[in-house]
Design brief:
alpha+beta, Glutaredoxin, four-stranded mixed sheet, two-stranded antiparallel sheet, 4 helices, globular, GPX_CS, peroxidase, oxidoreductase, Thioredoxin_domain, peroxidase activity
Length: 159
């Protein structure tokens, strides 16, 4: 099994098969517009620009499960990300990452890379999951890990 077996709704409402990312290194991130980690959008965009021509993409999944820090509509979120951080990487519709309504993709990637103490829930906004070219989740990064600190891991997968 790999992430390519999943579909996700893009921020504009279009249903997308993650199979279209086959062969790319991905960084899947649950995001929020009103979080202390929101400025990470800038570094995520920087990673995307630095490595997209080499086969890398960031996939942003807004989530309102952590202190309601993503209350807006998809249109609000898209506008916020573009205007404030120049985001051009793929963004998806708002999802739950934990609980009974968790998006199936997040259920899968959480189980592939348990967090601290073996728990597989997402603890907060801007948890990052690194995926190799074959769709395997290879590493989880805590929200406190800055995207720029992941560059070496991305480069290792791209080489």
């Amino acid at each position: 099994m790999s992430i390519y077996q999943f579909k996700a709704k893009a921020i504009d409402g279009e249903e997308i098969s993650l199979k279209q990312f086959d062969g790319k290194v991905l960084l899947i991130v649950n995001t929020a517009s009103n979080c202390g980690f929101t400025p990470q959008y800038r570094e995520l965009q920087g990673l995307y620009e630095a490595y997209k021509e080499k086969g890398f993409s960031v996939l942003g999944f807004p989530c309102n499960q952590f202190m309601s820090q993503e209350p807006g509509t998809e249109a609000d979120i898209k506008s916020f990300c573009e205007l404030n951080y120049g985001v051009t990487f793929p963004m998806f519709a708002k999802v739950d990452v934990n609980g009974v309504y968790a998006n199936p993709l997040f259920v899968y990637i959480r189980k592939q890379t348990p967090g601290i103490l073996g728990f597989n829930t997402v603890k907060w906004n801007f948890t990052k999951f690194l995926v190799d070219q074959k769709g395997n989740v290879v590493k989880r990064f805590a929200p406190t890990v800055k995207p720029s600190e992941i560059a070496k891991d991305i480069e290792a997968l791209l080489s």
